[in-house]
Specification:
alpha+beta; 16 strands; tubulin binding; seven-stranded antiparallel sheet; ATP binding; four-stranded antiparallel sheet; 32% helix
């Protein structure tokens, strides 16, 4: 670590937050310019929606979304129209603030006229999405998958997907949303940073149990129930590739403005965190993409009020150490010289 900046060139620069942390003239940087902006909830929704308009069947893995406040009238009109054509349709919507992370500010509503929605959207841009009411459950709990994806280059487009990821579980048994249980975040929201505060959160030494497990352990469970795990993986790979294709045109614009072609400059790579939900029929749905997925391999435990210690998390370690190790092998600058 170089807290005061570094003057000597090096092969790989590993930055905390963004590409613009320093002036770098050579080597490889673990961030793309513009990536943080591109995967914000509103920008991601716009990029995917552009592709949905062009290729509706290929991009049916992203929930129906509206951007607030600008599309609020459209949201109200479309929901009313869908309800008129199918009176039995009783949807739930999830509102996600554009810049929010770790579950901050997310809430569920049943109707566009919800007071909370009309009050907050003017001050805080957000995406509102149709909530997936029939998720796949394991042990009666809803969960999502965090997969790690290495974008190694834009030209040519080169993508690697880690073979294992994390499954992050809710801490209360799932029930379909009703007006009574809408506010129960531990039942509906899979965010680790929310569920860790639940009394039911289980830190496990084992990849197959607890509130955070390896994705491979969940695949084993599904396979033993007779699920077609090969097809599931190929659907997930397809979702990842298509999402990155949707982001690529704008990423290239950012890239070329920061690193003009023909000039010597750094090359970029980046580890992205893809958050994916599985529906009951095993169809993967993209929830969001994270430009700075946490690489921590320990969690804080409160020993006594206000006194914390860091405890190693075997599940995080198993998955994340492999992700970083393989990333460094893939971008290894010495490889070409050998």
């Amino acid at each position: 670590q170089f807290p005061f900046g570094r003057r000597l060139p090096c092969d790989i620069y590993w930055h905390g937050v963004s590409f613009h942390d320093n002036d770098i003239f050579s080597g490889q940087v673990n961030k793309f310019p513009g990536m943080t902006e591109m995967v914000r909830k509103i920008t991601l929704s716009r990029a995917v929606r552009t592709m949905q308009d062009l290729f509706p069947l290929e991009y049916n893995f992203y929930p129906r979304s509206w951007i607030l406040p600008e599309e609020f009238p459209l949201f109200v009109a479309e929901v009313r129209m869908m309800k008129d054509s199918d009176p039995s349709w009783k949807p739930t919507f999830i509102v996600k603030p554009d810049g929010g992370c770790q579950g901050d500010g997310i809430y569920l509503i049943k109707d566009p006229s919800d007071i909370r929605l009309t009050g907050s959207i003017q001050s805080r841009p957000a995406v509102v999405q149709e909530y997936i009411c029939k998720p796949l459950l394991v042990d009666k709990l809803k969960f999502d998958i965090r997969l790690y994806v290495l974008l190694k280059s834009l030209e040519p487009l080169e993508i690697y997907i880690a073979k294992d990821g994390l499954s992050r579980f809710c801490t209360e048994p799932y029930q379909e949303p009703t007006l009574k249980n809408l506010h129960q975040v531990f039942m509906h929201l899979t965010n680790y940073s929310l569920n860790i505060h639940s009394g039911n959160f289980i830190h496990s030494d084992n990849a197959n149990t607890g509130s955070k497990r390896t994705f491979s352990s969940v695949l084993c469970r599904l396979s033993s129930r007779g699920a077609d795990v090969k097809k599931l993986w190929s659907d997930i790979i397809s979702l990842v590739i298509k999402t990155i294709i949707a982001l690529t045109p704008e990423l290239k614009v950012y890239y070329q403005s920061d690193i003009p072609a023909g000039k010597p400059g750094p090359t970029c790579f980046q580890i992205l965190g893809f958050d994916i939900l599985l529906m009951k029929n095993l169809k993967p749905v993209l929830l969001e993409v994270n430009a700075n997925p946490s690489m921590r391999i320990e969690h804080e435990q409160e020993l006594s009020p206000g006194v914390f210690e860091n405890v190693p998390s075997p599940v995080d370690e198993e998955v994340k150490v492999a992700v970083i190790r393989d990333t460094l092998r893939l971008v290894d600058p010495q490889k070409k010289k050998r």
